[in-house]
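[agent] plan:
  1. take the single chain provided in the ticket
  2. run structure prediction with default settings
  3. attach structure tokens to the ticket
  4. add a short note for the reviewer (M.T.)
[agent] executing step 1
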Amino acid sequence: NRNVLEQIDRLLVPGGRLLAVDWAPGSGGIGPEDEHRVSQDEMFEVFTDYGFDVKNQFQAGPYHWGLVMQKIKPNL
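[agent] step 2 finished; step 3 output follows
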């Protein structure tokens, strides 16, 4: 959602870090349906397009993925 990205951009200074953790698609019957989940690759693409450098990618347990990103551009 563009509004969320604009707020993150407004609040986070260049060099600041952001942690994103979400449900992994296809991880079983718990959590939201797959059509309501965002994959790690999709999130990676969105944030790199908006001036973030992905510093770390990890599996956050059996059902979640995580990304640590750093803002490298001053504005969207």
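[agent] step 4 note for reviewer: The first helix runs from residue 2 to 11.
[agent] ticket updated
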